[in-house]
């Protein structure tokens, strides 16, 4: 059952939330696309932070979504799933940070701003920052400013382990900050224990 205090704050962002329901122990949120390039960053972060700490599934309805700041997912068992023709635009050199366990990101087209990041540690689409047992699958990454999927240890020592990056497509990556090729669609960070990463993806297009 969803608590009444959750319903109260969802009234404040009603235009953003299509439907909220529960299936067994999982809270399911259906989100509507932005109008007139409205920034959804703050509302999406509210959804992630304020709900009961039960498994959460966020379903993005068909349309375009605009994000201007980093989105942090640090709650356990979260799914961010796109229906058909879902596009998420990173307005700045921002992305989605996973610092949890058992997260799924699936079925979304992520679009960058088309300009290379000037820093190695920014501009990613998805940063696995000490995340475990996460799955990144069936997504498209296009014109991303930095490393598209970036594994990097949290606090310099907590590595990302037992994750799967599968059946994604990387198109026209924009990251270009060095002469020695220290950029990529998928990058494993320099330190911290990183174990049992499975990476199976489609061919990258220039």
Folded structure, characterized:
This protein is mainly beta and 206 residues long. It has two helices and 18 strands. The strands form three sheets. An eight-stranded mixed beta sheet has the order 1-2-3-6-9-12-15-18, with no helix packed on it. A hairpin with a 2-residue loop joins β1 and β2.
List the defining traits of the structure above.
mainly beta, five-stranded parallel sheet, 206 residues, 2 helices, eight-stranded mixed sheet, disordered N terminus, 18 strands
**Class based on secondary structure composition and strand pairing:** mainly beta
Overall pLDDT level: 82
Distance between the termini: 48 Å
Please trace the helix and strand order, writing H or E for each element.
HEEHEEEEEEEEEEEEEEEE
Largest sheet: 8 strands, mixed
Radius of gyration: 17 Å
| Strand-residue proportion | 25-35%
Provide a count of the helices.
Answer: 2
Task: Name the overall outline.
Answer: globular
pLDDT < 50 runs, ≥5 residues: 1-5, 7-14
Considering DSSP H and I runs of 4 or more, what fraction of the residues is helical? Answer: under 10%
